[in-house]
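In response to reviewer comment 3 from the previous cycle, which asked for concrete evidence that the modeling workflow produces usable outputs, we include below a single protein chain processed end to end. The sequence was submitted unchanged, and the resulting structure tokens are shown without manual editing.
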Amino acid sequence: MRRAVWVALLLLVSCVRNPVTGKRQLTLVSEAQEIELGQQAKAEIAQSIGLYPDERLQAYVAGIGQQLATHSERPKLPWSFQVLDDASVNAFALPGGPIFVTRGILTHLSSESELAGVLGHEIGHVTAKHSVNQMTKAQLAGLGLGLGMILSPELRQVGDLAQVAAQVLFLKYGRDDERQSDELGFKYALQQGYDVREIPQTFRTLGRVSEEAGGGRLPAWLSTHPDPGDRVIAALQRAAKVEPPQGQVRREEYLSALAGVVFGANPRQGFFVDNRFMHPDLKFQLTFPPQWKTQNAPAAVVAGSPSQDAAIQLTVAGKGSPEAAAQKFFTQEGLRAGEVSRGLVSGNPAVSGLFQAQTQQGVLEGLATFIAYNGIVYQILGLTPAGRLGNYGPLFRNTVASFEPLTDPAALNVQPARVELVKVPSEMTVEEFVAKYPSSVPAEQVVLINGLDRGQRIPAGATLKRVVGGELPRR
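The workflow returned the following structure tokens.
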């Protein structure tokens, strides 16, 4: 009974006024905690995924975002707007003000007004406290421990709240949240004088992109921003009510900022040719077992067996020695190490050993190897359920043995594809443009990144995007 009264009291004092709706709502996360969550997650994302290395583009996007945010319902938040070096077509907001867009989404937009609509949408998620509401609901699902985690300063200081933020970062917002953010983004863009008639085209393009494989390491737009069901129609209806129906488009300014931006996956960050992974900047290669499904993820290169009962993962363990990295790994709680040995892999110092680990899914067995190469220690981890190491052990060892320096000039010198601008000299159809100005991506993709439709006529003097370069070496 006492616990029920205490919980009821906590819920009573935790109702605050929503800055967008003006209504009081339950929240278990204060604004200070919200900001702390966002700042912690912001640093982790920037480190694990990486920011796009173009100060001019970063400043351009940040300037537009700050102008929108400072005229929102929460102007004093520590807003930030950054471009991630990722090919996926997405944008997302963190609690308390950090907002990220990928270079992938930038290459699929065609004007500053379209970008303002996207940034305004993400600002809306923050001003309306959508992430905070999700965290509150998640905590209410387990009141006992949840309230303690949210309200205890001691636990907050050791980062438990950051774990909560990470859990909700890429959860789908509800349709009501998406609809509200659409409306807020429209309002913010309109307030700053942008032509909001561009916003429906933005949603159309993002919907078309999400139907394709994005090639990025983050989820695509629709996987984190579900369509409320009438997004494009609602945007058209909102735009039709604006009088006079005009505003800034700033197409040329936007395209100028986009010129030369990397398009698609950047092979300088590592790429696969069949089952061989090559990293030109770090100058190494590793061959995974044939027929295994592979992925170059933000923090690791991973491969899964066809039967989905084994995995191999390549990560960076640090810059110390393989002995130190192995010591740290094999002394983890819940892990029992077998025989650990020192040796060489392609002439590089290495430490390798078998182990068993107790997990929530049961006991796993594996082989962990640490290789020092060019001042970096790499960890290659092979994992499989207990009892199957006899089957997969040889494959794990063969993968480790395949780690070697990358010396192929074609692989070392590979360059990414980039956006190039073309000013159309005379009126032509989309098909004529694609034929006259070839791209290194399929014609449908060229049509898509320019927000065009098949059969559409392009006026003389229009600036369009095409993609050049990016050829990978063949085996």
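The chain has three domains: 2-258, 272-412, 416-468. We consider this sufficient to address the reviewer's concern, and the full set will be provided in the supplementary archive.
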